[in-house]
Write a structure and sequence with these properties.
By secondary structure, the protein is an alpha+beta fold. It is built from 14 helices and four strands.
């Protein structure tokens, strides 16, 4: 027994000595050391994170005022049509028809929202190209029994199917981006056409309102003179009633024209993003009233390449391509969803293990058949939508061509009759000045000349507006960069 104790003491002594001579480690330092190891990892994970900034809404009207309009500068290179890109914007001397269109493209509220949608589409295309983040799992068990160690389980995995579907999702997002970009271009074309049509309408109303006012004043003068004659007993009631009716019609026509001019002013300011009180000074250029007929060969050539020129049709083609990729992604999603990873673990008996894990869905019931059917039906609808829009485009162009031809013939007939009517009005004015013509005949001759001038102006305005609409439908001014649908999609999808 003493030998045993001596041996035990000899065995224990070196251990205690070694323990005394070794540096003692503080258990509290281990968490701090782990935090230092985690710091670079946290910096890597959160270094590229976005930072939130609050952006409050504006409490007042932000429409462009007269003073702000004078300070607007527009880069012609940003314009969607070549004739606008070659035009200088200078509001100091008033706005011509091209400057109104440029201001509409740069300042239209709806186009600002469309450009915001384009920014969203770009962000979505960027998001679709990102690789999936790996998944890190950590678990730890603390046993309560003596003689055991803490168990842990570390795992790192990644979704393989997300990588498989990345190509189809990226191509679909790129095509959607091209569709949105082309849709914005088409919307800019429509805004340009609306601005030009409102310019034409405004100039027409500025020219015809004095004629209508003169016609109203003539009818009022005639009625007042006839009312005096009726009071003197020199005129019957039926003649006076006819004069009163004519005066009422002329006054109503002038009032309606005033209301139409106010509505046009409101529509133009809203299209240009201007405050309601802004009065835009419009200027005309030499040759603005000349409407040269379009050659049939030019129209036929533009119509033959309509599907490759109009942005809305090319946008539908891009949307169809996006849906093709969604359908392809749905087909790929029929395969089992797969994620793989690696595992490092230790149990409570201090045994380390390394291995891998696989998560696999079993395609027994769902098999993504519902989504496949949805994407296939959506693709069929987009195909029909494109064909319907193309057919409508051909029909609209045919209708405008036919209507423009009718208007051109009617304008020619009206203009050919105008000199005789104006000559009769001048003769009537001379005869009335010499007291050789009655007031009724004089006012009838003057009213006929005014009516014919208004008819000519109305036909010219209708023909000019139809010309603008026809150019917008045909895409006759489309830039060369957009001459090919595929080239445009490839360019704008990057």
């Amino acid at each position: 027994m003493p030998v045993f104790h001596a041996t035990a003491a000899a065995f224990a002594a070196p251990a205690s000595a070694a323990t005394a001579s070794a540096p003692r480690r503080c258990p509290r330092l281990r968490p701090l050391r782990r935090l230092r190891l985690l710091a670079p990892l946290c910096a890597l994970l959160f270094g590229g994170c976005a930072i939130y900034h609050r952006e409050p809404l504006a409490p007042q009207d932000t429409s462009t005022s007269t003073r702000s309009l004078e300070r607007i500068r527009i880069d012609p290179a940003t314009m969607p049509l070549p004739e606008l890109a070659a035009h200088r914007f200078d509001p100091a001397d008033g706005l011509d028809i091209d400057e109104v269109a440029m201001l509409a493209v740069a300042n239209n509220p709806d186009l600002k929202l469309a450009r915001d949608d384009l920014g969203i589409a770009r962000a979505q295309a960027y998001s679709a190209g990102l690789l999936p983040d790996p998944q890190l799992s950590i678990s730890s068990d603390y046993p309560g029994a003596a003689g055991t160690t803490r168990a842990f389980n570390y795992g790192l995995s990644i979704d393989v199917m997300a990588i498989v579907l990345r190509s189809a999702n990226k191509q679909s997002a790129d095509a959607t981006l091209a569709k949105t970009d082309l849709g914005l271009l088409w919307q800019e074309w429509q805004v340009v056409a609306q601005a030009r049509q409102l310019f034409i309408k405004t100039r027409f109303q500025q020219d015809t309102l004095p004629l209508l006012r003169e016609q109203r004043d003539l009818a009022r003068t005639r009625y007042e003179r006839m009312a005096e004659a009726r009071r003197d007993g020199n005129l019957t009631d039926d003649v006076l009633s006819a004069a009163l009716l004519a005066y009422g019609d002329a006054r109503k026509q002038y009032t309606d024209a005033e209301r139409a001019a106010a509505q046009t002013h409101h529509d133009l300011n809203a299209l240009l993003g201007l405050a309601p009180d802004v009065q835009v000074q419009l200027q005309t250029q030499a040759g603005d009233s000349d409407i040269t007929p379009l050659a049939d060969d030019t129209l036929d050539a533009a119509l033959a390449r309509l599907a490759q020129r109009r942005p809305d049709l090319i946008a539908l083609q891009a949307g169809y391509e996006a849906q093709e990729q969604k359908y392809r992604a749905a087909i790929l999603s029929q395969f089992p969803s797969l994620s793989v990873g690696f595992v490092r673990a230790r149990d409570t008996s201090n045994i380390y293990t390394s291995g891998f894990q696989i998560n696999l869905s079993l395609p027994i019931f769902n098999r993504n058949q519902g989504n496949v059917a949805i994407e296939k039906a959506t693709r069929a609808r987009l195909r029909d939508e494109y064909q319907t829009r193309l057919n409508e485009a051909y029909a609209d162009v045919a209708h405008l061509r036919e209507d423009s031809a009718i208007l051109a013939r009617q304008l020619q007939q009206t203009e050919s009759a105008l000199p005789d009517v104006e000559h009769a009005a001048r003769q009537a004015a001379a005869a009335y000045a010499d007291h050789d013509l009655a007031l009724g005949a004089y006012t009838d001759a003057q009213s006929a000349a005014l009516t014919k001038r208004i008819d000519v102006a109305t036909l010219r305005e209708s023909l000019a507006e139809q010309r603008v609409g026809l150019q917008a439908l045909l895409g006759s001014a489309i830039p060369d960069a957009f001459s090919s649908a595929q080239t445009f999609i490839d360019t704008h999808a990057k």
